[in-house]
Design a protein that fits this description.
Length: 262
């Protein structure tokens, strides 16, 4: 049984008195427990809109969304979201930032800090809990961002281009770290990215969306062994997946240009 089920999702938006813009139309997707799914597509195809609709930041115009049940436990949640910007409170230490979601759920500060402490170790920040965000690197800030999302024990982890602002070397390091954390926590992940290589390296499946309004045009299972090794990025089968996805996106971009020109 699917843990997340999206059926005929449509999301339109616009100011009152203007013609609405349809960002997503007829989008359907099933995600099984523990899967790592990446969403790709042309710029403006509605990738982030999908995550916002799932998280309640946008109200769908029509369609159905079946979200996963929260794990057992008072701190558990159906989902949590990791944004591109780490968005840490600069006046809180890293440990307090990670524990913040638990405080919002009614834990005392002491209990929240104690309960979230193992997550600092999990993401490699065990020695940096007493630092402020400005005292650590961008990669460390995103590790804290991930730990904060995991602290509320979500069934589903929504990730919106979390590594886009990082330099290439740090980004690849964080991809490997994310896979390590994912394998240890067995969370279900829905990951939005513009990077084809990133999607292939991380994912069990890559979902390719059409130009706006976004709909699923391809659901590609990545049949590469796990754990994923760095050398895999230069392997022929890895490159073949990249080329397949690139051609699909380029075709959508070309169709979009033709439509605008006609």
């Amino acid at each position: 049984m699917a843990e997340l089920e999206i059926t005929d999702l449509e999301v339109s938006y616009g100011r009152r008195g203007t013609t609405p813009t349809t960002a997503i139309s007829g989008l359907s997707l099933s995600v099984e427990h523990g899967e790592f799914i990446s969403i790709l597509g042309p710029s403006g195809c509605g990738k982030t809109t999908v995550l916002k609709a799932l998280s309640g930041l946008l109200t769908p115009t029509s369609g159905d969304i079946k979200m996963p049940e929260p794990p057992t436990g008072a701190d558990a949640s159906s989902y949590s979201m990791v944004f591109q910007d780490a968005s840490l409170f600069p006046w809180y230490r890293i440990s307090r930032n990670v524990a913040y979601g638990l405080e919002c759920r009614g834990y005392s500060r002491k209990d929240a800090l104690e309960k979230s402490k193992p997550l600092l170790d999990l993401v490699g920040l065990g020695d940096f809990g007493e630092h402020f965000p400005h005292e650590v690197s961008g990669g460390m800030q995103q590790r804290a961002n991930l730990a904060r999302a995991l602290a509320v024990n979500p069934a589903l982890l929504l990730m919106d281009e979390p590594f886009a602002a990082l330099d290439a070397q740090t980004r690849e390091l964080m991809q490997a770290e994310l896979l390590r954390v994912w394998s240890e926590t067995t969370k279900t992940v829905l990951f939005v990215t513009h990077s084809i290589a990133e999607a292939v390296y991380l994912s069990d499946r890559v979902i390719v969306l059409s130009s706006r309004p976004g709909r699923v045009i391809a659901d590609i299972r990545i049949e590469l062994p796990r754990p994923r090794e760095e050398l895999m990025r230069v392997a022929a089968d890895f490159r073949a997946y990249e080329e397949q996805i690139r051609l699909l996106i380029e075709d959508q971009v070309g169709r979009d240009r033709q439509a605008r020109a006609s």
